[in-house]
Amino acid sequence: MAVEIAPQVAPVGAQVSNETAPYKESFLWEWATTVDHKKIGILYLLTGGLFFLIGGLEALLVRTQLMVPRSDFMNPDLYNQMFTMHATTMIFLAVMPINVGLGNYIVPLMVGALDMAYPRLNAFSYWLYLFGGIFLNLSFVMGGAPNVGWFGYAPLTENQYSGSGTDFWVIGLQILGVASIAGALNFVVTILKMRAPGMTFNRMPLFCWATLVTAILVLFAFPAITIALFLVMFDRHFGTSFYNAAGGGDPLLWQHLFWFFGHPEVYILILPAFGIISEVLPVFSRKPIFGYSFIAYSSVAIGFLGFTVWAHHMFATGMGDIANTAFATGSFLIGVPTGVKIFNWIGTMWGGSIRFTTAMKFAAGFIGTFTVGGLSGIMLASPPVDFQMTATYFVVAHLHYVLFGGAIMGLFAGLYYWWPKMFGRALDERIGNWHFWAQLLAFNITFFPMHWLGMEGMPRRIYTYFPNEGFDFWNPVATIGSYLLGGAVLIFVANAVITAFRPADATDNPWEASSLEWATTSPPPAHNFDVEPVVYSRYPLWDISEEDEHGGSHSSVSSHGVSATAIATVAKAHDEHGDAHESGGHGGGHGIHLPAPTIYPMILALGLMILFLAVLFTPPTLKIVFVVTAVIYFVVAITGWVKEVTD
What we know:
- The protein is mainly α.
- The chain has helices at 27-32, 37-65, 76-110, 119-138, 164-193, 206-237, 251-285, 292-305, 321-349, 358-380, 383-389, 393-423, 429-447, 449-455, 474-500, 540-550, 564-576, 578-582, 600-617, 620-646, and strands spanning 15-18, 591-594.
- It folds into 3 domains: 1-33 and 526-593, no CATH class; 37-500, Cytochrome C Oxidase, Chain A (Up-down Bundle); 600-646.
- It contains 20 helices and 2 strands.
- A two-stranded parallel ribbon has the order 1-2.
- The longest helix is centred in the N-terminal third of the chain and has 35 residues, at 76-110.
């Protein structure tokens, strides 16, 4: 597939154009057809935020059911639906997409690019994600939501144990998987091929490192769950027995395939937060990151080791001492590059001139809460301990300290940090301070007691419990904490709404940061940069600031934060080699040509959702009609897409 963006270089003041229609587009049409990575990033953030609230509501319903013994707030089946959809929503529809949204908006700016490598594919990824999420949630009103847990252990997914909700779960995850793989390919190509001149790997921002490793993890992990889900569909609809022991299958095959995806998935969720923290801490400590190379390459090590430890989720399945020992060893090893990052972050703050903005508080809070999750993870990496704890609420506590105390705390740090760049106005620091302390307190009230519940023997995945079993005190505490946590998140929502009605007054670089996204306006123009920046070090904007103070060859700074000498050099190179850019098909020379908006990515994604709904819920005699209609629909839509690209 050819790269669909314009040449990277244009003189200052060059005209910016695309192939848009001559009439003024409506607001909805503009966003429905956009291929701008910044708008797509905002769409991801808004949609992911909405699903985050839905997932949080499902969690509150689960905690309400468990507040007191023998509660009849929900029946067992509805409870199973809620806890399945809570985890599925938070993992696949909230945290991952919000990570992708931040990456979509920030990564091209960080590397000095005009857009993602494949803008139309980028839009297609978003619409697939949106319609995949809608497809999953339609199950609530079309026969019942999935009730097999987010892990979908076989044989619970067989027809005799679950209804149509499992079909929604299987197909919905397949749609989301295609969206994730397409997005990951886009990130890999963008980061590898579209960095600004001078931005070597050892000068690349650490958020870009984390995003690159995350994207590679997606490319290698998602095929495993794709295969596993296909086999579930074959068992349910075509009479096979891949997971049915009575038919010669093996239920543990599902666990191996699922956890080969599932454990790297933990790092897919947490690595972007590592990258965010590695950007926020140096800025508000006013000093370079401590151990840049180790943080960068340890992310690579985590990505590699993440594929070697999947079966530590299966210690209690009877794999045997040799297998348990091997996977326990790998699980201990992966704690080394993860743990040393914490010392790097502390070393960054040590001796720094720290500004405790809201973003900095969330970054520091991340270190504390994630460390607790990491320590409990080391405990669970030991097979004897895991035998006792694996089916208890201790694992629920560990999971949430890693994914909420880690991933979500990191995401809030990133949102407070990059909000001025994305929207031209900073979130209110006073309200942000309330949000941070309320969330930190409520989070620990909710999840820390679950360690005790687990050690007392409370099983996970149960919808009620008997009184006087040692669970009566901490469950109400955890439930009260969950409602406080929901209130803390609403403080952030209120902050975002209040900020939206304030004047756009953010400067280009309000935090005095060092990376390239702060070298353009807040928010950036459609084409990101008037001139392609040239990078001379890991901290280009800090270097310019120091040279401006002390004089030097790059002492003059343009309105976009790039040295005037660099602008002159790039513009001269463009004038000398403009013909080479013109051959790219986007009209180089003296203008920046952006790809035209298109409706076809949304049409294709919507058609895929409708096709699956039709196949699942139409009589057998009509299925062939829908399949033929769908084939014609997709041929026409893809033809229109290709025609737009080639015209």
